[in-house]
Design brief:
The protein is built from no helices and 13 strands. With about 180 residues, the chain is mostly beta strands. Strand 3 and strand 4 form a beta hairpin.
Length: about 180
């Protein structure tokens, strides 16, 4: 999904998503991988029937659902279009099991910059993924892409915060199913 964002000085954008485990998942299980280099697993969040693997820069590199665990080649990340990371990502584990990833992003050839903070928090049946963006300097815009790659997109349902899951059958033309 893509969002056009406005990054005013001293303001911020907050976005929250949930990665949830479902009892029955279609499709074959994949082999778990630890990855190498930039894709190496740096953290695992265990949330009941769901375990999510994260890299040191806050990208999701896989998930395991249910008991026993069924591995999925799920990947997810936040991208600011036209921008690049500037420096290392600061990774922290909080007392409640939440992992935070803080990185500075710049828009090349401009003075535009921001700080992106992603939080992955365990809940009893999901992982809450929160994104905060704090703009530096004068107001500017960039497209925020929350990229989720599911191994079998035709079998996936994605509920967006602006949807109405109760009236989804009534408003079929308005839903954003993936």
């Amino acid at each position: 999904m893509h969002h056009r964002i406005f990054l005013p000085a001293m303001k911020h954008l907050h976005l929250a998503l949930f990665l949830a485990a479902w009892a029955a998942l279609p499709g074959p299980a994949e082999q778990a991988t630890q990855g190498t280099g930039a894709d190496a697993v740096a953290a695992v969040i265990d949330a009941g029937n769901l375990a999510v693997r994260l890299t040191a820069d806050g990208r999701v590199t896989g998930a395991a659902f249910g008991k026993p665990r069924l591995e999925r080649a799920l990947t997810a990340e936040t991208i600011l279009a036209g921008c690049r990371r500037d420096g290392a990502t600061i990774m922290r584990k909080l007392a409640d099991g939440t992992w935070t990833f803080q990185s500075r992003w710049v828009q090349p050839a401009t003075p535009n910059a921001c700080v992106l903070v992603e939080r992955f928090s365990p809940t009893p049946n999901s992982v809450r993924w929160e994104v905060d963006i704090h703009g530096d300097g004068k107001p500017w815009t960039a497209t925020l892409a929350t990229v989720l790659r599911w191994p079998e997109p035709s079998s996936a349902n994605l509920w967006m915060a602006w949807q109405d899951p109760i009236n989804d059958n009534i408003n079929k033309d308005k839903s954003d199913h993936v």
